[in-house]
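note to self: dont lose this again. the chain is below, predicted strucutre after it. 283 aa total, dont forget to put it in the shared folder this time
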Amino acid sequence: MVLIDGKALAAKMQADLAEKTARLEAETGQVPGLVVILVGENPASQVYVRNKERSALAAGFRSQVVRVAESISEAELLDMIANYNADDSWHGILVQLPLPTHIDEEKVLLAIAPEKDVDGFHPMNMGKLWSGHAVMIPSTPAGIMEMFKEYKIDLAGKKAVVIGRSNIVGKPMAQLLMDANATVTIAHSRTEHLAEVARQADILVVAIGRAKFVTKEFVKEGAVVIDVGMNRDENGKLCGDVDFADIEAHASYITPVPGGVGPMTITMLMEQTFRACESSLKK
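---
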């Protein structure tokens, strides 16, 4: 069994990114600019935003975190996004989700200019992904594809099962796997005989949001298992959607939690911000 070390891969990619950024600045005088808008005091969001800011600064980006009160009106938030859309020094705009209930999440995502939507959630970017012309891709699936590449895991002709159907992970993951010539099944909490379906997979990607949900009954001998989950177990310890101890003997490759998919998500966000900056210079 090979442990897929997302932390080490992320560190390597971020070091490369810092070099590319320094080169870009030397050649053009420009550095990528990333702004993150954080609404309210959600503790998990605070942690994510802090990590994003740290990674952006480490890569040599121009970085700004705008913290606004939970009471901000939808109109004020949309105005703020419009201002960043119009400012050429910002190449990536992120609005940290979830948002307070009085703000329409879809309206906010639609307001971000597609070319600055480094999260890849704008319907135009989703449409490009589904039509096979991806520009901005949701970061978690993009990071998983980099892991497959790094560990030389061939996807062509393989049976892949994705457990989870969210717009953030499940659906874009399925499309990227299809683009790599895998045969893909999307399963979810309502799938009948879920363990049996999962057991067909050569590649199993789990993003169901339930701690240690996937046990050895779900895993074919020699399967590649990617655990996207981030939960707390009964002792408050960080764990994934996969029961790691139960299935590690069955898998050929597996991602740990923490240290697997998580670090790659933020790395891909930075990569896409860099690419957005490069694209803006070609206009």
